[in-house]
Amino acid sequence: MQPKTTNRPRKRRKRARNKTAPSKLRVYETLHALNQAFEQVLTDLGRLEELGFRGGLLHEFRVVVEETRAWVNFELIETMQDREERDWARFGRLRYQQEKKLRDPNDVLIEAERLKQKQAAEKKPRKRNARERA
Length: 134
What we know:
The chain has helices at 24-50, 55-102, 105-123, 130-133. It is mainly α. The protein has one domain (24-123). The N and C termini lie far apart (118 Å).
């Protein structure tokens, strides 16, 4: 006996996307590994040149590898800069909120008194010394 079939369209499940970004440590480790690999390719191209392979062509390959490495570094670092900047702002806000919770209510009064004294000192006429009077 076969299961009943209906004419209703089947609902497709949406795949849950992993919205969390990869850990920063993994990104930086991967960038390091990529740069090591680029360096290895450049070293191997240099060895081939020492063995007498066509130096001009190998030089062109080195230029392409260096360009590709610079491009990869630029793109990844630019992305990470944006992420680091957002994290810096977010953690700065969190730190400020924590400091605000821990702040002594009397600190506000002390700061207000200090500002009042500073303003009073600025309003007082300055006494001139003997040299300035002459």
